[in-house]
Amino acid sequence: xxxxxxxxxxxxxxxxxxxxxxxxxxxxxxxxxxxxxxxxxxxxxxxxxxxxxxxxxxxxxxxxxxxxxxxxxxxxxxxxxxxxxxxxxxxxxxxxxxxxxxxxxxxxxxxxxxxxxxxxxxxxxxxxxxxxxxxxxxxxxxxxxxxxxxxxxxxxxxxxxxxxxxxxxxxxxxxxxxxxxxxxxxxxxxxxxxxxxxxxxxxxxxxxxxxxxxxxxxxxxxxxxxxxxxxxxxxxxxxxxxxxxxxxxxxxxxxxxxxxxxxxxxxxxxxxxxxxxxxxxxxxxxxxxx
Length: 290
Description:
Layout: H1 9-26, E1 34-37, H2 41-55, E2 58-61, H3 69-83, H4 96-186, H5 189-194, E3 197-205, E4 209-220, H6 223-241, E5 247-252, E6 263-274
Parallel strand pairs: 1-2
Antiparallel strand pairs: 3-4, 4-6, 5-6
């Protein structure tokens, strides 16, 4: 702003101080550090020195090529009139309502700017994190592929060993089942020792046990001998097959047609035994008397 210097130097300096205070209030502590001064040649020196001493400002000549100070002041007045809201060196006090509105606008603008910064930071951080992890995964995958090449022969060896172990386990299971089946069939040899004839033998397998059904008969001229044969067979089965579940399903004792004819006693029984023998096998116990 062009300032014409007259005799009232003190009044002009007071106006400058009020203008400086107004700018500091309106623009959050902004301070004037340099003053562009237009004055007549005889008035410029005393006024510039007074301003520098009282306000501590750097004073420079304004528009010496334009013309006199009066011409510059006239141009400033025209520009100030066109702006409609010129600089008032004697501003009135701002109302509380306008101050609150201005504070609200500032808070809203600051909040919007802050939200924008947070959103930008969040999006940028997410993209950067994704790129970082993608780079790490690619690097690790490449390193693993590079190291997996020499391990391929070892994988083949391990696969073959696993196949061999599975085959060995299958052979061992078959061998155990074969041994158990032989044990069940050997139980039939007890029939000859007990004097019993086997007429039927059935063995079924479930995941845990064998279930065996046996049918047979014992013949003797003396009924007591036939009963004794069946009894010996019935008592010997549990110890031979390691089972305590021997059960008698039927016993047929017909009368002989003649006194000289042999007595034949038919029987049927079944039992359950574990699929494989081991330390956990159930100990045998004597079955009930037939």
